[in-house]
């Protein structure tokens, strides 16, 4: 499915894609990424994995983002000389594929094959078909379903029939029918996913790939062995436990089985039984004589002492249903269904409904409720009760609940409201809030106090009521003291559980569970909480938890927030159901009526990767034996797995001992796993289970535990959540087609690094394509013109600065790669690295770039960018004549850059940028003055712009005082104190009185520099000579500013204005521009075949001959007159001389050499110039000649 962003041209994308196809063919032919244990380990090994994706469809861009972290890391670690293994498997365990296949089979059975559906689709499909259709749409994407067709398909995912969804994707009827067999999905999608990943350039060893479930006998054997050992070690137990449950498929629904609600668990409530008091209202007359209870789900049993009434919503649907003991509960049907799976009803999962009711039918009903001080309370209306939470019946405690107080107050104060819902006065007016809990700061009626504080007027002030609850609920729990009952005087948090237990023991309440939030199974139905007999992994075992915490403490998480999320998960994680009866997977070895669920067969499979190539050799299903050992599935007994992974010698003879030794060697070489990358949503389940199970399988070998896990946020597309229904969605295949592999990879790297949600921006991908293509074309241009590039020494300032910039870029980029900060690595290793090249090219515009530095830049750029954009880097590498793949090269070794040179280079560029801004402002002001005819800024006649650059040797005295004081404060406080302390220290300094308005702004600016640079920002001098840097690059400054003359002076020069002396400081030169009148003088070179041209050179009054020659060099297109002698000549007869035809070889005849010390003066009538020498003026006219003589 493609997003809506369209482009006009694709030439550059196609060019990159052609390169990528060629490079990938080369890698495959050379088997670059196939790697085995053994041999010289060199700089070490690096084993990285990505959670194998579920194979019910093509990968989308979100998958690509997470796995790109593995991909970039492998590329970098290879450059460090490590042996790197990145295997990739395919997950099919669970119920989604089976559910979709069964749905297709039912449609064919009911409607034929191909099916003929009824015109009226109101009854089409089964429950929740809309949701399962959405999953199927993702599952059935094909390579031909792209672009606009994909967007159309995205908008039809609400179709009720699975068959229709497949048809909308362009699949033939004959092909669709095959998907009714769940096994066909396993053969169809993994090869397609693998090809997409190859097109991405994934550095995977595909020999080690496999598909899970029993269809793969080798992996099936591995998982069965794992569970046998876990059971032996008492990590797996059996018993009744509460779990999220799918009524439709009649089995537990784990995270991977859900289309919504991943990570949601059961929430425990106390179900308070409020017995109906006869006489009953008309709607309940048939319940006369029975034990009838309205049941309210509460998280705060301690507040039951303060009940004044019970709430129902008048327009909500309720049911009265029968329990297995004959009692009758009244609540919503959703809650009743949950209860039916928790042992409340006679038949599990069945609700015996006796009455269907509206909330209005219950208003006025008298109730006998536990713990309250009132003998009878009444059912009253509340309008904001939610249907998807609790039972629809709510106890009212207006002393401690802002919602309850606001609603009760409305009913008491508003008679029309009572009349509207038929509320009798005696059921509400006598009841006032009952003080039961003392909350510090809010007293014994905390809800009343907070409502008064926030000026809450009614139950409709939703935002203020939410704020009120946030203010008092947690404070009440942690600090509140009970004022009534047997636990009077004790803190709520200490007695809450005791109160709950007492109510349950006395039969006044029961424990009730429901999902924390709505959970939708991939089968389409809303899940409940069920009390089931189950095999479960006992993650709550204290010793096992301690091991997991130890493993986490030694593990690299690359983010403190990720570590905290892991710690929180390890704290709350208890039991996890590891079995089910429906779907695909491996059967429990000791009870084959159960299947191992999808999160439980995927915890240590990374170990299987290390040996998979010996077992399957790239055959995803493990359907046949493979060389060199031709191991059969039956050879892989539990004892064989013990020998490979646990180093346990078998008491019986093992088959194919040489093969097992080879596999054992592979495992010992590659383990432990160095890195696992995933989305943050897998921290509470898969990633934490991985930690636990590694600890369980290798309890005595902590060196086998995982070394690192990196979690990232979700991926937005163009700043919005990816959604098939809106068309804002891209599969991996779509992205490869639209942006090329390297274009997509660059945008993925730029999308973000942290645990916060990242953002793939299509315009950024397009810009990346342009950058890559431009780089490629520049490389071609440079390699084609190497002979024209400068050679010789590389000792000029710009050469040395460029080399320092490259070294700095290599080192900082390495730091970012080390920290897996790929967005930053891209910034420093490509964007800023290219900017350094551009700066060098700009600085060398007059002399040209050095050939060796250009070649060094191209080679270095290819290497440091190769982890992110490997295809174009491989192509550039081959263009440089390198025979071996760039995948085998090493990270560049560079010396530490000259920091002073880096600072001075940055100083130069920052200064020139500031000069440009000042020049623009000067020209803008001059233009405005010209319109106003202000001759002070814009004198008449042609103008030349001159600049004076003022450089400070030290800071002005007032700034020096501030810097010195701040440095003292920094050293005293080990950092800068807050501005109040700084202000107090500076306000009485006598040298600052005159500048008091500027003191704190300057101090704040310095503070910001200190935050970036540290205490070095407080130095009062620079590490380099500013004036020398500017003078050495004066030609560049003149050329880039396009001014005619520049002088560099110190700010303490007597001619400097006061503002310059007061404001100019080290590191911040000031450029002052002015306009001067000039005349153009024609300078002609009359030498034969000289390559020099006639140039109109502007001459200012007071110019020296040397200045005019320098200006001639710039304007004539000469890099400089270095290495030659240039003579400037005037005509003896300034009127007739220029008219005479020159004689070849006698260019000086009739002319006089102008001495370099001569000063030019503009004639009064502006018709030409004169020269002044020793007080004498000589007419030059409007034309001169110049001769270029090579030095011998």
Automatic annotation (TrEMBL):
Q: Which reaction does it catalyse?
A: tRNA(Leu) + L-leucine + ATP = L-leucyl-tRNA(Leu) + AMP + diphosphate
CDD domains, per the entry: Anticodon_Ia_Leu_AEc, LeuRS_core
The record ties this protein, via SUPFAM superfamilies, to: Anticodon-binding domain of a subclass of class I aminoacyl-tRNA synthetases (SSF47323), Nucleotidylyl transferase (SSF52374), ValRS/IleRS/LeuRS editing domain (SSF50677)
Q: Which InterPro entries match?
A: aa-tRNA-synth_Ia, LARS1_ULD, Leu-tRNA-synth_Ia_arc/euk, M/V/L/I-tRNA-synth_anticd-bd, RBD_LARS1, Rossmann-like_a/b/a_fold, tRNA-synt_1_cat_dom, tRNAsynth_Ia_anticodon-bd
Boundaries of every tRNA synthetases class I catalytic domain copy: 671-750
| Annotated Aminoacyl-tRNA synthetase class Ia domain residues | 23-104
Which molecular-function annotation in GO is an example for this chain? aminoacyl-tRNA deacylase activity
Could you say which EC number(s) this protein's record lists? 6.1.1.4
One GO BP annotation of this record: leucyl-tRNA aminoacylation
Q: Where in the numbering of this chain does the Leucine--tRNA ligase RagD-binding domain appear?
A: 951-1023
Reading the lineage from the top rank, the first entry is Eukaryota
* Methionyl/Valyl/Leucyl/Isoleucyl-tRNA synthetase anticodon-binding domain location: 799-911
Q: Keywords assigned by UniProt? A: Aminoacyl-tRNA synthetase, ATP-binding, Ligase, Metal-binding, Nucleotide-binding, Protein biosynthesis, Zinc
Q: Which cofactor does it need?
A: Zn(2+)
**EC class (word):** ligase
Which family would the database say this protein is a member of?
Answer: Belongs to the class-I aminoacyl-tRNA synthetase family.
Q: What is this protein called in UniProt?
A: leucine--tRNA ligase
Organism of origin is Rhipicephalus zambeziensis
């Amino acid at each position: 499915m493609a997003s809506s962003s369209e482009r006009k041209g694709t030439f550059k994308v196609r060019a990159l894609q052609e390169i990528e196809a060629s490079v990938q063919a080369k890698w495959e032919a050379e088997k670059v990424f196939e790697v085995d244990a053994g041999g010289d380990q060199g700089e070490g090994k690096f084993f990285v994995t990505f959670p194998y994706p579920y194979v019910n469809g093509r990968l989308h861009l979100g998958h690509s983002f997470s796995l790109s972290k593995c991909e970039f890391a492998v590329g970098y670690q290879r450059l460090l000389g490590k042996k790197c293994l990145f295997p990739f498997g395919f997950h099919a365990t669970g119920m989604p594929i089976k559910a979709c296949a069964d749905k297709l089979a039912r449609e064919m059975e009911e409607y034929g094959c191909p099916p003929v559906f009824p015109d009226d689709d109101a009854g089409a499909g089964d429950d929740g078909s809309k949701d399962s259709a959405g999953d199927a749409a993702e599952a059935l994407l094909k390579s031909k379903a792209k672009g606009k067709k994909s967007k159309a398909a995205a908008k039809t995912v609400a179709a009720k029939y699975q068959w229709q969804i497949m048809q909308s994707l362009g699949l033939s009827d004959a092909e669709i029918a095959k998907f009714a067999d769940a096994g066909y999905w396993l053969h169809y999608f993994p090869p397609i996913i693998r090809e997409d990943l190859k097109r991405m350039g994934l550095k995977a060893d595909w020999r080690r790939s496999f598909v899970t479930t029993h269809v793969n006998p080798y992996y099936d054997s591995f998982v069965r062995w794992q569970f046998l050992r876990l059971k032996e070690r008492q990590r797996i137990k059996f018993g009744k436990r509460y779990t999220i449950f799918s009524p439709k498929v009649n089995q537990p629904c784990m995270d991977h089985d859900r289309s919504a609600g991943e990570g949601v668990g059961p929430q425990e409530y106390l179900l308070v039984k409020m017995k109906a008091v006869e006489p009953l209202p008309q709607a309940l007359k048939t319940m006369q004589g029975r034990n009838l209870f309205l049941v309210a789900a509460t998280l705060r049993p301690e507040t039951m002492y303060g009940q004044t009434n019970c709430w129902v919503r008048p327009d909500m649907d309720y049911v009265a249903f029968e329990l297995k003991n004959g009692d009758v509960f009244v609540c919503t049907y959703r809650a009743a269904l949950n209860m039916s799976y928790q042992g409340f009803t006679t038949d599990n999962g069945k609700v015996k409904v006796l009455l269907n009711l509206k909330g209005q039918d219950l208003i006025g009903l008298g109730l006998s409720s536990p713990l309250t001080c009132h003998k009878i309370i009444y059912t009253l209306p509340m309008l904001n009760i939610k249907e998807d939470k609790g039972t629809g019946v709510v106890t009212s405690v207006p002393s401690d609940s802002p919602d309850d107080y606001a609603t009760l107050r409305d009913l008491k104060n508003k008679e029309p409201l009572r009349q509207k819902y038929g509320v009798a006065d005696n059921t509400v007016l006598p009841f006032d809030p009952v003080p039961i809990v003392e909350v510090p700061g809010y007293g014994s009626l905390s809800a009343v106090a907070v409502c008064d504080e926030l000026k809450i007027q009614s139950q409709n002030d939703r935002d203020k009521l939410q704020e009120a609850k946030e203010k008092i609920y947690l404070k009440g729990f942690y600090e509140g003291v009970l004022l009534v009952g047997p636990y009077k005087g004790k803190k709520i948090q200490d007695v809450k559980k005791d109160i709950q237990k007492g109510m349950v023991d006395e039969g006044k309440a029961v424990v009730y569970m429901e999902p924390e939030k709505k959970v939708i199974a991939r089968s389409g139905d809303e899940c409940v909480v069920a009390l089931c007999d189950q095999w479960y992994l006992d993650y709550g075992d204290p010793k096992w938890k301690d091991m997991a915490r130890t493993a986490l403490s030694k593990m690299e998480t690359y983010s403190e927030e990720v570590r905290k999320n892991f710690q929180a998960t390890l704290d709350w994680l208890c039991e996890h159901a590891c079995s089910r009866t429906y779907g695909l997977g491996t059967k429990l070895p000791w009870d084959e009526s159960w299947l191992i669920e999808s999160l439980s067969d995927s915890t240590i499979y990374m170990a299987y990767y290390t040996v998979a190539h010996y077992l399957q050799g790239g055959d995803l299903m493990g359907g046949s034996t493979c060389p060199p050992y031709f191991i059969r599935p039956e050879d892989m007994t539990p004892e064989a797995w013990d020998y490979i992974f646990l180093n346990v010698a078998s008491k019986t003879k093992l088959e194919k001992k040489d093969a097992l030794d080879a596999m054992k060697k592979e495992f010992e070489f590659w383990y432990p796993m160095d890195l696992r990358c995933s989305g943050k949503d897998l921290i509470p389940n898969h990633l934490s289970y991985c930690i636990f199970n590694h600890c369980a399988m290798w309890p005595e070998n902590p060196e086998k535990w995982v070394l690192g896990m990196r979690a990232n946020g979700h991926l937005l597309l163009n700043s919005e959540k990816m959604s098939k229904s809106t068309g804002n969605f891209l599969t991996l295949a779509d992205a490869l087609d639209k942006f090329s592999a390297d274009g997509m990879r660059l945008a993925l790297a730029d999308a973000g690094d942290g645990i916060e949600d990242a953002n793939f921006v299509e315009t950024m991908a397009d810009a990346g394509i342009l950058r890559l293509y431009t780089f490629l074309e520049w490389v071609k241009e440079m390699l084609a013109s190497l002979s024209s590039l400068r050679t010789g020494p590389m000792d000029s300032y710009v050469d040395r600065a460029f080399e320092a910039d490259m070294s700095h870029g290599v080192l900082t980029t390495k730091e970012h790669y080390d920290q897996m900060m790929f967005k930053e690595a891209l910034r420093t290793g490509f964007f800023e690295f290219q900017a350094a090249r551009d700066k060098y090219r700009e600085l060398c515009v007059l002399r040209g770039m050095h050939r060796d530095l250009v070649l060094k830049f191209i080679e270095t750029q290819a290497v440091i960018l190769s982890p992110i954009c490997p295809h174009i880097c491989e192509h550039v590498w081959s263009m440089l004549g390198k025979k071996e793949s760039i995948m085998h090269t090493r990270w560049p070794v560079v010396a530490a850059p000259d920091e002073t040179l880096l600072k001075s280079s940055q100083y130069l560029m920052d200064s020139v940028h500031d000069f440009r801004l000042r020049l623009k402002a000067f020209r803008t002001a001059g233009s405005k003055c010209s319109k106003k005819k202000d001759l002070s800024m814009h004198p008449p006649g042609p103008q030349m712009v001159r600049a004076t650059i003022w450089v400070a040797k030290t800071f002005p005295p007032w700034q020096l005082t501030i810097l010195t004081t701040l440095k003292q404060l920094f050293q005293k406080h080990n950092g800068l104190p807050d501005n109040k302390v700084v202000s107090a220290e500076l306000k009485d300094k006598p040298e600052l009185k005159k500048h008091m308005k500027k003191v704190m702004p300057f101090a704040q600016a310095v503070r910001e520099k200190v935050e970036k640079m540290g205490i070095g920002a407080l130095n009062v001098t620079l590490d380099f000579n500013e004036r020398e840097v500017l003078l050495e690059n004066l030609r560049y400054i003149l050329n880039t500013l396009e001014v005619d003359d520049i002088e560099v002076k110190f700010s303490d020069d007597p001619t400097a204005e006061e503002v310059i002396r007061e404001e100019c400081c080290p590191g911040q030169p000031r450029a002052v521009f002015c306009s001067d009148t000039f005349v153009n003088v024609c300078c002609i070179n009359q030498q034969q075949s000289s390559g020099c041209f006639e140039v109109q050179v502007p001459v200012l009054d007071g110019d020296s001959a040397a200045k005019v020659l320098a200006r001639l060099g710039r304007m004539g297109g000469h890099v400089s007159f270095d290495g030659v002698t240039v003579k400037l000549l005037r005509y003896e007869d300034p009127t007739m001389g220029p008219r005479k035809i020159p004689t070849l070889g006698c260019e000086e005849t009739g002319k006089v050499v102008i001495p370099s010390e001569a000063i030019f003066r503009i004639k009064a009538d502006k018709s030409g110039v004169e020269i002044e020498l020793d007080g004498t003026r000589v007419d030059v006219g409007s034309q001169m000649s110049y001769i270029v003589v090579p030095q011998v």
